[in-house]
Amino acid sequence: MNAPDVIRSAYAQLAVTDLGAARWFWVDMLGFYLQYEDTDALYLRGTDELTHHSLVLRKGEIAALDHIAYRVRTPEDVDKAEKFFTELGRPVKRLKKGEGTRGIGDAVRVVDPLGFPVEFFYEIEHAERLIQRYDIRHGAEIARLDHFNICTPDIPAAYAHYKSLGFGCSETIEGDEHELYAAWMYRKQTVHD
User: Fold this and answer.
1) Which segments within 39-187 are labelled E, that is strand?
2) CATH architecture under which domain 6-148 falls
3) Contacts of 26 (CB under 8 A, 6+ apart)
4) Which residues contact 142 (CB under 8 A, 6 or more apart)?
5) Domain-wise residue ranges, the chain
6) Global pTM?
7) What is the dihedral of CA 101, 63, 32, 115, to 10 degrees?
8) For residue 82, what are the contacts with CB-CB under 8 A and spacing of at least 6?
9) Would 103 disulfide with which of 28, 52, 144, 156, CB 3.0-4.6 Å?
């Protein structure tokens, strides 16, 4: 199987029960920049990000992860993601530009072998760099979202899955018998990503 070429963690979409309270916490307190909002969602990003959003907060019945998203290297890698997860027998949904999350082009949403909802896409709207916009800074001023923490009871399965997607491993925590308790994985040779 040919895995898609993932280049980075791109955004997370969370379901929230109260958009007003979510805005207060994520924007007013933490300092995410509000890129766009409508009656159902807030699209946020950090001051060092050049894309439309890195965090989407969507109104929902219960607070939960809606999905995490990875950007892939080429439009063809979106097709590869669809084929890769179809061959794994996982649920796959193809989304044309405009059918999924605002600002995202064609995408594939899957339920990965660990049970997590994950999206793969290439195209995303770009936005103004805010790193020197001191006039809009407030809160903790989040610079960027650059990694995801995935908690699962089957660490070896998670490790194997992400290795199959081309991720490297920077460090692990292992028990006395070399049982894997945790792994920090990366897609680029930077600290997280």
Assistant:
1) 41-45, 55-59, 64-72, 92-95, 107-111, 117-121, 168-174, 180-186
2) Roll (3.10)
3) 32, 42, 44, 55, 57
4) 30, 31, 32, 46, 47
5) 6-148, 149-188
6) 0.91
7) -60
8) 92, 94, 108
9) 52
* Backbone angles phi and psi of 23, in degrees to 5: -60, -45
Structure tokens, 2:
């040919």
Do the Cβ atoms of 100 and 56 come closer than 8 Å?
Answer: no
Round to whole Å and give the CA distance between 169 and 32.
29
A 10 A CB-CB count for 106 gives 19
In angstroms, rounded to a whole number, what is the distance separating the alpha carbons of residues 121 and 132? 29
Tens digits of per-residue pLDDT, 98-156? 999 999 999 999 999 999 999 999 999 898 888 777 787 777 788 888 889 999 999 99
> Which residue is associated with the tokens 């070896």?
156
In the block, residue with structure tokens 């007013």: 28
Percent of the chain with pLDDT over 70: 98
Residue 133: how many CA atoms within 13 Å on its side-chain side? Answer: 15
